Amino acid sequence: MEDGTLNARIDPRITRTTKAFEQAIVDLAAQRPISQITVAELADRAGVTRATFYNRYNTPFDLLIQVLCADLERGHALEDEQRDQGLSPARQLHHLATRQVADHVERFMAVYRLALGDPADSGVYDVLVRHFSNYALAHMARRAPQGLPDDNRQVMAQFLAHGFAGAIRAWLNDPSVTKDDMVHAAVACAPAWWAADDDPGESASS
What we know:
Elements: H1 2-10, H2 12-29, H3 39-46, H4 50-54, H5 60-84, H6 90-107, H7 109-116, H8 122-143, H9 153-173, H10 179-189, H11 200-205
Helix pairs in contact: 2-3, 2-5, 5-6, 6-10, 8-9, 9-10
């Protein structure tokens, strides 16, 4: 039984089907809002049956969010790797993390522009806010109590998350705003404690 389960997990057909679904949802969501995409056309685009889709996912929206969040997490993994290895000071890590998110949005630019421009697809924006809020809470947990204000962290995380998501929205809605503009503005607006160096001596000398 265990061997059979293991073989199913590594079956290349499963991997191909997963990738086909992920590519199909990204392609379709770049053409029109996710609220207008049906399971039938998604399955057809991926070259599988609707039953196969429902065996894995609930809705096209769920699949899209899974793809977007997985890509965001890959960026966070790079940041975590550099932090664990002590390769970069806190300020550089903060810039790296912001740049990784900007690169993610750029990869899915058409998807985000369509979703953020359609009230029926506000869920995509809400997921972004929730993702950034969870990231902020994790960051605060790592840094405590190094200069962190003694205030409600859930409220602080929501404030930071909505601000960052708002900066992304401003970038997407204004052609004159570049990716670098968004990154530099977001970094500049971060509170002092967010990217403070772990070593007080290092911070004082910088």
